[in-house]
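User: Please run a holo structure prediction.
Assistant: Happy to. Please share the sequence and the ligand.
User: Here you go; the ligand is cytidine-5'-triphosphate.
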Amino acid sequence: MLAGKTIILGVSSSIAAYKACEIVSRLKKLGADVWVVMTRSATQLITPQTFRTLSCNPVLVDLFAPEFSAMPVPHIALAKMADLLIIAPATANVIGKLAHGIGDDALTTLALSITAPKLIAPAMNCEMWRNPIVRKNVSAIGGSASGGKKLKELKWRIIGPEAGHLACGDDDIGRMSEPEEIIEATIKLFAEKFDLEGKNILITAGGTREAIDPVRYISNRSSGKMGYALARAARARGAKVTLVSGPTYLPVPADVEMIKVESAAEMMEAVLAKQKDADAIVMAAAVGDFTRNDELPITNDEIKLKKIKRNNNKLSLTLKSTQDILQIIAQQKDRKNKILVGFALETDDLIKNAKAKLKAKDLDLIVANEPATFDSDEIKFSLINRAGKIDNLPKQTKTTAANLILDRVQAML
Ligand code: CTP
């Protein structure tokens, strides 16, 4: 039910932290990819190892955690991946920091930078909850116990606290809502659209690498972010997703079939093997246009084995054009049964060149963009359909753009 969703669970230092284990376990059972971020004091109550085991992901406690070395800035990388942030339990201290824009640890900095929806489950002593400063902080982050207008605008939802027996001995308000209720609220939050359920979508991402020798290669500046955003969004909307990706440093999206390739030829082989079952193919990859020429007095195996020496102070390489994957797919006999989406990256005459590519590659839709898009989290682009209709779209996050592109794909399907 939550397959394809990436959920960050923030755990702060209330004794209700033990109930967060149940939340992780339930979210996992529903198919979500769960990442836990803890405050340092919460680790006094429950160990990161418990959450690591339950979530099958490393747990972020410190901003500069060595186990997150694959993510250059872990709290930002997690914030970008997230479809939802839940803070359960949320202490008065964490709520106070959120209310005042304070980011002094991994959890609060992540909460400041995240744009996905947020759900907070406070847990504290009854007098703390009633304290006028805490009340003020709760309304500053947009909520009150019964919800409020500002809450929706700021994308914060609040659940609880409930009345009941508190760890401090009082029978009063302050208990964290039960994991079951938090899960229910989570499901409701996501119960938007599953409009790609039952569809197979093949997506390519990243740049390819063409080997010059065993250590050097020709590549391009593609980060893969657009293709990965498309894969995550398509999966979140219920599609079965195959992602063929050139080398990137991005985390593998949850619950997609991932095929890692290096060269344009490998990408073509993977795409051709998978295209038959696809209802839609979205070629977001920046496929290398040139590769080393086989006619050199050096064989393909030698390219992989023999490092070119610097002896002569200069080197001439003969390159030949790679095969156009999209064009080859467009020539398959079952072309009519699928939707083909291409990207056009242009420095000049964006719309004119994109239109020409749409026609030459027999596409249903082309996403025209400029090199400024490379490695950015945002994209400004135009969509051009088969009939030549152009929609110029404003700069937006790649996640939002991915959903817009998928809206078009869905309508054509
Ligand atoms: N593409 C492809 N196979 C290639 C090159 C590109 O399938 N060998 C796809 C890309 O994934 C993209 C579209 O074709 O969806 C356009 O890619 P782009 O690099 O903009 O254009 P090219 O066709 O390579 O033309 P040029 O580099 O001359 O602009």
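The pocket of cytidine-5'-triphosphate is lined by residues 264, 283, 285-287, 289, 322, 324-326, 342-345, 357 (CB under 6 Å).
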